[in-house]
Amino acid sequence: MDIISVISSILSWLPLVIASASTYSVCYILFKRKLKEVREAIDVLDDALQDDKISEEEFREIWNKFKAIIIN
Questions:
Q1: Where are the domains of the chain?
Q2: What is the pLDDT of residues 53-72, one digit of tens each?
Q3: Taking burial as the number of CB atoms within 10 A of a residue's CB, which of 9, 10, 18, 54 is the most buried?
Q4: How many CA atoms lie within 13 A of 10 on its CB side?
Q5: At what angle do helices 56-71 and 3-48 cross, to 10 degrees?
Q6: 3-state secondary structure (DSSP) of residue 67
Q7: Cα distance between residue 67 and residue 39, in whole Å
Protein backbone atom coordinates (compact mmCIF):
# COMPACT_ATOMS: atom_id res chain seq x y z
CA MET A 1 0.00 0.00 0.00
CA ASP A 2 1.54 3.26 -1.01
CA ILE A 3 1.23 6.62 0.73
CA ILE A 4 -1.29 7.97 -1.79
CA SER A 5 -3.82 5.23 -1.08
CA VAL A 6 -3.36 5.64 2.69
CA ILE A 7 -3.98 9.39 2.48
CA SER A 8 -6.93 8.82 0.17
CA SER A 9 -8.41 6.31 2.60
CA ILE A 10 -7.98 8.70 5.54
CA LEU A 11 -9.51 11.59 3.63
CA SER A 12 -12.52 9.51 2.61
CA TRP A 13 -13.29 8.66 6.27
CA LEU A 14 -12.56 12.12 7.68
CA PRO A 15 -16.01 13.70 7.01
CA LEU A 16 -17.76 10.77 8.67
CA VAL A 17 -15.53 11.00 11.74
CA ILE A 18 -16.05 14.76 12.03
CA ALA A 19 -19.83 14.45 11.63
CA SER A 20 -19.98 11.69 14.23
CA ALA A 21 -17.92 13.70 16.71
CA SER A 22 -20.06 16.81 16.30
CA THR A 23 -23.28 14.80 16.64
CA TYR A 24 -21.92 13.19 19.79
CA SER A 25 -21.05 16.60 21.27
CA VAL A 26 -24.51 18.01 20.56
CA CYS A 27 -26.18 14.96 22.10
CA TYR A 28 -23.92 15.20 25.14
CA ILE A 29 -24.77 18.87 25.66
CA LEU A 30 -28.51 18.18 25.35
CA PHE A 31 -28.20 15.25 27.77
CA LYS A 32 -26.41 17.45 30.31
CA ARG A 33 -29.15 20.10 30.07
CA LYS A 34 -31.89 17.53 30.57
CA LEU A 35 -30.04 15.98 33.51
CA LYS A 36 -29.73 19.42 35.12
CA GLU A 37 -33.49 19.95 34.74
CA VAL A 38 -34.16 16.58 36.39
CA ARG A 39 -31.78 17.39 39.24
CA GLU A 40 -33.47 20.75 39.85
CA ALA A 41 -36.92 19.15 39.81
CA ILE A 42 -35.84 16.52 42.32
CA ASP A 43 -34.36 19.25 44.54
CA VAL A 44 -37.69 21.11 44.49
CA LEU A 45 -39.51 17.88 45.31
CA ASP A 46 -37.10 17.12 48.14
CA ASP A 47 -37.55 20.62 49.59
CA ALA A 48 -41.33 20.26 49.44
CA LEU A 49 -41.25 16.88 51.21
CA GLN A 50 -39.01 18.19 53.98
CA ASP A 51 -41.97 18.87 56.30
CA ASP A 52 -44.17 16.01 55.00
CA LYS A 53 -46.72 18.52 53.70
CA ILE A 54 -46.92 19.85 50.17
CA SER A 55 -48.67 23.17 49.77
CA GLU A 56 -50.56 24.20 46.66
CA GLU A 57 -47.71 26.51 45.62
CA GLU A 58 -45.11 23.76 46.07
CA PHE A 59 -47.24 21.32 44.10
CA ARG A 60 -47.56 23.77 41.21
CA GLU A 61 -43.81 24.38 41.19
CA ILE A 62 -43.07 20.64 41.20
CA TRP A 63 -45.66 20.01 38.50
CA ASN A 64 -44.26 22.78 36.28
CA LYS A 65 -40.67 21.51 36.69
CA PHE A 66 -41.56 17.92 35.74
CA LYS A 67 -43.84 19.09 32.93
CA ALA A 68 -40.98 21.17 31.50
CA ILE A 69 -38.76 18.07 31.53
CA ILE A 70 -41.26 16.03 29.57
CA ILE A 71 -42.34 18.71 27.10
CA ASN A 72 -38.90 20.09 26.24
A1: 3-71
A2: 888 999 999 999 999 999 87
A3: 54
A4: 5
A5: 170
A6: helix
A7: 14
| Rounded to 5°, angle at Cα 64 from 62 and 69 | 100
CA-only gyration radius of the chain, Å: 23
Quote the CA–CA distance of 68 and 38 in Å, as a whole number: 10
5-49 pLDDT, tens digit each:
888 988 899 999 999 999 999 999 999 999 999 999 999 999 989
By CB atoms closer than 10 A (0-12, 13-18, 19+), residue 24 is exposed
